């Protein structure tokens, strides 16, 4: 047994991501859906959307990313003492995704792995990360590593109770309100940690949960509005002070003028602190629990490791319902190995573009067969990245079989 | 802000339980179901089964028990820094039960509470407890208390994909296999902690997850079989040594003779170490995540606090899928206040006995209306314990309203 000396710098040592190989172009989708040109690409800020067919489900996706993670970083399954899955995608009503993942550990003989699934909409992965870090920081830690998996298959559908029912406009305000309170709490924590007059200036990068990237642009402006409320007479707000000096958090949730003003005012800081983290979100779409970590992966993939050294990265995680947190950490040590293993840009470019009508067919197939027993998926295995776990059959007891492509 | 001095003796300070007021008698149910007399009462070891009608769901049940907990122990909602729910009962496909519970915190102004839901069949509550303890033992701890909720509505139904599909005999072997490995791991931990030749003798009480109490009788015998394998020539096994000296863990999962022999051999130790913890299980039925904690509550309700002082209590938690743990702790300090607040025996006796056919009607009502929108429950509010949250309506967006009776 490893003797556990108390670890320094508990944090994220390695990251792997996975997204499906097929995508639909958002401007093509605008035409196909008959909405005005620019609605998805400018209005929502999305370029491409990755999606999977009936060959993949939440279990296969998690199997894929865990297996690739272990292989790329050359980690032995025996080294893992905690495995935690944050997801809101449910196949089995009671078996956890973590249990399915344990099949990967079987060969190593390691059956003693703490942790299960945590769920709260898109917040689950963050909670899983917190649990893993706290485990490592507690007497329960046995010296082994923790692996956190945040995975989901995001589908919005209407008139179908199988998918989460979304009240869009309400969910958007809820996101902003949660951001306000999470930011206030975060500033208090910085203050308690000795940071004087904490504000947006106190962090170098700010990564947001992104349902679509336009929401993040708004969220960033909202952060600046929060700073404004704490220090309205600062010179940077001179232009807008008179117009918004009476506003409060509560009065302003539907104030479009205010929203626009703070988006404009925050533009250059947004470019410096947040825009690079939206690479994956803009090109893949909403990833629920994975979204904020894809943001982190995008940042690491876009900014050179040397530039990131000692920088404070804050993450805003939000899950409808709602649960939200802002937390931050500092970059300690080289992250260029993570960037090269992620190989994000190349992998994004290596996808297959599918027409909107093919996309629609695949979505209806998935919807109509979603809960089927005795089902054999029909999606082409050739349209998967190499090393992708995929579903081969579902038997009459709903048991699913997977294979590696 | 409270300055958090590192806590000693992290553990369970207070317990509250809740079960519905209606029950069906198991010997009456035998007659009604046309099974042989004794099958449920002797074969499965169950006397009564509590159940709820369409007035209650997982949210109302958790609201009830949290509200009663806070009131009985006079805890302010502001004192809670972590709230964690272990459950496998899903209403909302993405919103966590924890989010619903936060409505109880609203009045106090405490919106900063870590933790969400953890899920893995009946194991969720244990994982929630571990997370809470590790939080308290880590730098993330902010000096406040953690509240762990383990709640479920257990229903086994056939031909309905809404409920977990159970392969009974397989799940029973899986339980025993998980017990074997959890016990081996536990013994290793005791050894690492300096206990010499750890065995059943090393623990004073052993509380099991109980799908039905007969399974626990078998599980207890199985623990003795594990001890036998480690030390077969000990005098206590003299009678059976020759018969079972060739057996291994794997060879014996279907060996009924062996099962019976070890049940017989363990009878008196079972009575001393486990039987008292089955009070609630025998009288309420399977409680999924709550089961093992109801076991602990039963033990505290049955054995005087003075007798429990300094004793080591081990808990076996199991969730299909599977995830399982054995862990133990020592009783430090008076627990008679918990026992009197639980008031378990009196509350069990204060229930309403319902006939099997009434029971069946209520079950089919619940099944047929389980996913309804725009629904008004019809169950009688008078048949609830005072202080029970109950459902008053579900609107067209599936939003549920609750009231306190
Ligand atoms: C986000 C959502 C509410 C948008 O609603 P909608 O009615 O489809 O779209 P809207 O008409 O409001 O248009 C969205 C934006 O695109 C803009 N837009 C529309 N057409 C446009 C065009 N042709 N060119 C440029 N912009 C355009 C709109 O002005 C609007 O901008 P605004 O957000 O600054 O007001 C909807 O997509 C939704 O429900 N999404 C899922 C919910 C979600 O993700 N919530 C977040 C949970 S974390
Ligand atoms: C447990 C389960 C498999 C029992 O299956 P079953 O076919 O209904 O019942 P059985 O015929 O096996 O009878 C159960 C026991 O009662 C005994 N029994 C049956 N009739 C009896 C009678 N009249 N008097 C006394 N004992 C009787 C049987 O001998 C058997 O004993 P055994 O377990 O020692 O072999 C079934 O109830 C089930 O699927 N339960 C849900 C699954 C579950 O809870 N799993 C645990 C997950 S943690």
UniProtKB/TrEMBL annotation, chains A, B:
Keywords from UniProt, A to Z, are: Transferase
The protein in question is named Hydroxymethylglutaryl-coenzyme A synthase C-terminal domain-containing protein
Question: What InterPro entries has UniProt attached to this entry?
Answer: HMG_CoA_synt_C_dom (IPR013746), Thiolase-like (IPR016039)
Q: What taxonomic ancestry is recorded?
A: Eukaryota, Fungi, Fungi incertae sedis, Zoopagomycota, Kickxellomycotina
A molecular function GO annotation:
hydroxymethylglutaryl-CoA synthase activity
Does this entry carry the keyword Transferase?
yes
Task: Give the matching CDD domains.
Answer: init_cond_enzymes (cd00827)
> Which BP terms does GO give this entry?
acetyl-CoA metabolic process; ergosterol biosynthetic process; farnesyl diphosphate biosynthetic process, mevalonate pathway
UniProt key word Glycosyltransferase: no
| Annotated ranges, domain Hydroxymethylglutaryl-coenzyme A synthase C-terminal | 162-403
């Amino acid at each position: 047994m490893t003797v556990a000396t108390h670890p320094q710098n508990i944090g994220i040592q390695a990251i792997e991501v996975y997204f499906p190989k097929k995508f639909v172009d958002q401007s093509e989708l605008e035409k196909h859906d008959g909405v005005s040109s620019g609605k998805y690409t400018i209005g929502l800020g999305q370029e491409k959307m990755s999606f999977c067919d009936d060959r993949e489900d939440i279990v296969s996706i998690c199997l894929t990313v865990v297996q690739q993670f272990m292989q790329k970083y050359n980690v032995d399954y025996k080294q893992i003492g905690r495995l935690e899955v944050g997801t809101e995608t449910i196949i089995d009503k009671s078996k956890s995704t973590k249990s399915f993942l344990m099949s990967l550990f079987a060969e190593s003989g390691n059956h003693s792995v703490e942790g299960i699934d945590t769920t709260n909409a898109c917040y689950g992965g963050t909670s899983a990360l917190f649990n893993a870090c706290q485990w490592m920081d507690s007497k329960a830690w046995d010296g082994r590593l923790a692996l956190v998996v945040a995975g989901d298959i995001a589908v919005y559908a209407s008139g179908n109770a199988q998918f989460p029912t979304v009240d869009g406009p309400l969910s958007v305000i809820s996101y902003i309100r949660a951001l306000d309170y999470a930011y206030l709490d975060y500033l208090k924590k910085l203050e308690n940690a000795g940071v004087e007059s904490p504000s947006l200036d106190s962090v170098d990068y700010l990564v947001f949960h992104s349902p679509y990237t336009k929401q993040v642009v708004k969220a960033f402006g909202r952060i600046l509005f929060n700073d404004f409320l704490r220090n309205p007479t600062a010179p940077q707000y001179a232009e807008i002070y008179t117009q918004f000096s009476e506003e409060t958090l509560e009065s302003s949730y539907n104030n479009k003028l205010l929203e626009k003003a703070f988006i404009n005012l925050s533009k250059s800081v947004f470019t410096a602190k947040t825009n690079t983290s939206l690479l994956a979100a803009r090109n893949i779409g909403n990833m629920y629990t994975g979204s904020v970590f894809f943001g982190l992966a995008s940042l690491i993939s876009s900014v050179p490791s040397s530039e990131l050294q000692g920088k404070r990265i804050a993450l805003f995680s939000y899950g409808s319902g709602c649960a939200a947190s802002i937390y931050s950490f500092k970059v300690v040590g080289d992250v260029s190995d993570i960037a090269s293993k992620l190989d994000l840009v190349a992998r994004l470019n290596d996808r297959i573009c599918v027409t909107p009508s093919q996309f629609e067919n695949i979505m209806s197939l998935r919807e109509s067969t979603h809960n089927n027993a005795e089902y054999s998926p029909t999606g082409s295995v050739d349209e998967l990245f190499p090393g992708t776990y995929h579903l081969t059959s579902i038997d009459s007891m709903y048991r699913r079989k997977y294979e590696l492509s």
